[in-house]
Amino acid sequence: MLIKRISPGGKVAAMNIERFTIGLVSALVAVAVFAGISTAQSPPRAVVPASNLNQLMRGLFFVHANVVFSAQRKNPAEIKWTSEPSASTDPLTGVFGNWEAVENSALVLIDSADLLMTPGRKCSNGMDVPVGKADWAGFVNELREGGKAAYKAAQSKNMDNIIEASDVLNTSCSDCHNKYRPRAIENRCK
Predict the structure, then answer these.
(1) Distance between alpha carbon 136 and the CA centroid of its chain, in Å?
(2) Which residue range forms the structural domain that includes residue 29?
(3) What's the pLDDT at 50?
(4) Is residue 47 part of a domain?
(5) From CA 106, how far away is CA 67, in angstroms rounded?
(6) C-alpha torsion angle, residues 74, 80, 81, 83 (rounded to 10)
(7) What is the DSSP string of 78-132?
(8) Is 45 within the bounds of a domain?
(9) Of these four, 23, 34, 92, 118, which has the most CB atoms within 10 Å of its CB?
């Protein structure tokens, strides 16, 4: 279809609508493709872990595993809150204490197991954490499963269940420590 237009100078200009539309659409597609290429994000940079394995164990896994283990000795429902529960450094005596603290600690163990597979993390002796070894991945999975058992037991609020779950969690810790955490620091992570 042709459209005739009279310009201010009195000249007649003919325009083919189909050609105009195809040209306009082509230009818009080219702009969109160029914009997508120019704004595409570069691949994420590998983040160097802030903590070494020993620091991660002491600051996260030791703390939360001990919340689960402590539930074997004393029923979390019977643990009293501190006088200032919002300032408590003990999860069992804080605002989210009692069985909820055991549940939360178990969930932390499950989710943070992936931190043990972070490339670039070092052991306290400077060696790389052996994330590429099949047995290491197996130990990490054992930890995750121990956390799942603890979470299920904490939800049941049953002391017998938490004792069984604590055994699963303790076994996962011991299996890994027996292989990768010998007494001599220089032999760790080998």
Answers:
(1) 18
(2) 2-39
(3) 96
(4) no
(5) 9
(6) -140
(7) GPPPPSSGGG-SSGGGSTT-THHHHHHHHHHHHHHGGGGG-TT-B-TTSPBP-TT
(8) no
(9) 92
Number of domain units in the chain: 2
Distances, alpha carbon 4 to alpha carbons 7, 16, 22, in Å: 10, 9, 18
Q: In whole angstroms, how far apart are CA 64 and each of 16, 20, 38, 108, 128?
A: 73, 67, 45, 7, 24
Its pTM stands at 0.75
Q: For residue range 111-147, what is the model confidence (pLDDT) as tens digits?
A: 999 999 999 999 999 999 999 999 999 999 999 999 9
- 35 and 57 in one domain? no
- Indicate the residue type of 60: L
Residue 25 resides in a domain: yes
Residue 44 lies in a domain: no
Whose CA is closest to 130, among 189, 48, 70, 54? 189
Q: Does residue 64 share a domain with residue 18?
A: no
**Mean pLDDT, the chain, as a whole number?**
86
